[in-house]
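User: quick one, fold this
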Amino acid sequence: MYTERASRLAGAVVWTSTPAGAGTAPVLPDGCMDLMWSDGRLLVAGPDTRPHAVEGPARSWAGVRFFPGTAPALLGVPACELLDHRADLADLWPAVRVRRLRDRVEAAPDAATALEEIALDRSVWSAAPDPWVHRLVERLEEGRAVSAAAAELGIGARQLHRRSRAVFGYGPKTLARILRLRRALALARSGVPYAETATRAGYADQSHLARDVRELAGRPLGELLRGGG
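Assistant:
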């Protein structure tokens, strides 16, 4: 069973996942990065461009999902270095520091809240994300074209691509596709017919929606919704 709540860290979400039935649905690209805890390990989920299959036996997870583009400033590592990858936090931070944090989470009554507090502590002294990050995400979520968003931000195409790789893990066009997929899934899950979902989410037509869902989520839209992905 999956649950989430808004975090005290702006734009972030605190979540937990416990085994419920057979199999675990793949994690779909969402533009975000996560700090996670499971079986005594602290891990970081990098940005995804394809569905991520959770390997190994079913187990409980807790995590903090950061607003798109904000995790690299907190973690001190470019997002592109973690693209489509899960890494032990000890591979990114000094082992002594990670050991202290692991002990802190293990001793806490609620692992998810402990992770949130670690993220809040980190945010106090880490560099704040540049305002253009939030502004770009907002405009792409509204369905603006990348070129229009870049013009509004006053950032050239090459510079925007370079900056985007550092904070999102990929260029702005990939980010736009992933955010559009999120809009489409939200609409389809709410019962909006597929053709209308395609139009409202910003696709050329229903076939365009179907192709993008297959490429980014690995399954047809109907199968994805039936499986709870």
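User: anything notable?
Assistant: The chain has two domains: 2-125, 131-226.
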